[in-house]
Amino acid sequence: MRFLLESRKLILLAAGIYIVLKLLFNIGIVSEYIQQITIYVFIVVLAATGLNVIYGYTGQFSLGHAAFYGIGAYTSAYLVKTLGLDSVFALPATLLAGGIMAGLVACVIGIPILRLRDDFLGIATLGFGILVRVFFDNSDRISETLGGSRGFTGIAKLTSLETTFVVTVFLLIVTSNLISSRYGLFWRCIKDDETASASIGIDTTRMKLMAFSYGCFLAGVAGALYAHLYTFLHPSNFDFLKSIDFLIIVILGGMGNIAGTIWAGLIWVGFIEGLRIVLPSNILDLRWVFIPLLLIGLMMWKPYGLMSKKKGDG
Amino acid sequence: MTAMLEVERLEKRFGGVRAVDGLSFHVDKGEALGIIGPNGAGKTTVFNLITRFYTPDSGRIRFMGRAITHFPPYRLARLGIARTFQNLRLFKDLTVLENITSAHLTGHSYSPLSGIFRTRKHLRIEREARENAMMLVDFLGLGGKEQTPAGSLPYGEQRRLEMARALAIRPRLLLIDEPGAGMNPREIKDLLTTLREVKERFDLTIVMIEHQMGLVMNISDRILVMDFGEKIMEGTPSEVKKDRRVIEAYLGEEPV
After folding, report:
1. What is the pLDDT of residue A309?
2. Beta carbons within 8 Å of A88's beta carbon, 6+ residues apart
3. Which value does ipTM take for this structure?
4. Which of B55, B71, B116 to mutate to test the interface with A (most CBs of A within 10 A)?
5. Are B43 and B226 in contact (CB under 8 A)?
6. Are B174 and B207 in contact (CB under 8 A)?
7. Most exposed: A36, A283, B4, B163, by fewest CB within 10 Å?
8. How many domains does the structure of chain B reveal?
9. B91 contacts chain A (CB < 8 A)
10. What is the pLDDT of residues A81-132, one digit of tens each?
């Protein structure tokens, strides 16, 4: 199949990375905790890639990405728990369900709000993110299983290195093909000049909605993987600050740059978790001081992202 | 002759200003219509109303016999109405080639799945888009600049690229807004040749807003003169040049 053939280099590279990781995990020199973090990197990269499609490629400023990540997580966890689908074989279906739910919600709220531009869209998505957080906080009124502000507990652990790896690599290839197709081209046109886009026949409303829904779908799948990795969900995992994390990763990696997002996701998780190991516990909270400092530094020296060739690269 | 475009009693107000005030005109197939008038006469507003970037307050627009007054801009483009902009609106971060292929691809569709799995159809359409873009690149003298970001082209080439992009949607009607703005007499002469070639080769009907009399009088079959949102006269270039009202409103007291 052409899909596999054209992406063979990427797939081989991914397989190589997988084998190295698997060996490291099996030799036993890597703690359970680090293994979990490694899997988490892929999840973060997948969700951030979704935001890159929305913001980096299409120019739709979203401050509510974590809400869709959460919707995917809660959807998949709820399905697994209530339907008793706690087998690895049902996982693809529930991951897809998480993604589709996030994509559908994105579509429904996207129709009214995507006509807003720049900062206004940011504020609207921010509002939506808060709304979802409040919904999670009070979700126990709808179903006791969802746990409300106490958190959603007892989720089956189904996410393994293999599932995360296959799902993330597959979706990254799908995304990169989509971006090099006419759809990706139209998204970049819209980011550049919406009026001109309409003048050459691009249905801008539909294309923006497509990018937004697809990006949120990726976040939903990532969220579902997250739910079955940590087996516990709390509304605070999906609040505004989480949305900012994704935004930082996209900016760090460079807008409209998928390889950059992968590196930035790795650096981001490595930095936060690394500081957790390095810093003594009494000053652990200083992590949240270092990160904004990093961001300020980044904007001053590498405003187009770490991976960007613009201005003083290499 | 059949009318390509018919505009009837078109009206647009901005606050208390009547930008376009009951304007009616038509353009026949294969014709070139020039629109002239002093600054603020409402010429560009007419273009924005035809392409539906503004919503008319009243009036009707027909394109090839079809009522299009309420079509969104992207549908008008797909029906065959292309335009260029007074202040250039290129996709600055995209390459020259991407600027043109994007326009071609709006009319040649394949599904997202086809794009993801790189089907034969996807590959064929993408190849045609590239070939067509290369043809336009050569035609408008942009050879060698295919991979240059549009924003870093010199002004004259940006103008030509915008023309190439408009032509890539295979229009029947081309609306050109001040193509000669900021050009010296030599460039104007080249532009005139290009416009004639474009019109011939792509079998186009053209409506052009232009201040440069040398250009607009040379290319137009008919001229429409506007002032304060109204048509003050319409006629052949030689009639317009002689008309007293036009000379007073636009060209100044002395005949040119």
Report:
1. 61
2. A158, A160, A163
3. 0.92
4. B116
5. yes
6. yes
7. A283
8. 2
9. yes
10. 999 888 888 999 999 999 999 999 999 999 999 999 888 999 999 999 999 9
